[in-house]
Amino acid sequence: MIARNIKRGFTLIEILIVVVILGVLAALVVPSVTSALTDANTEAADARGSQILTMITRYNQFLPGGGTAISTTDGAIAAASFAKLVTAGYCTSSDVENQLKADRAASWTFTAGKVIPTP
Question: Is 107 within the bounds of a domain?
Fold first, then answer.
């Protein structure tokens, strides 16, 4: 008998089915991944807000050099307040950056006893 050298490959239909299945899986996974990234950024910003509140509380408790206290009333936190924290060595300027909006370097507000990033 003569051995035949037959090369078998995938048909066009088989390849198209695999591509469609991969496309459907990607369509299911991508939204959940982007949602998870948004949630992670929001949680990180909340944690950073808690850290900033702790820094402000410590600063107010131990006013360095007889300085003035940082206001903790509801509303926007002035940039000068962050400068006081940086000067006193409680943090660096990058510690007070708004993680949700990179174009708003230090835009945080007091709301109901919490420090939250300004949207």
Answer: yes
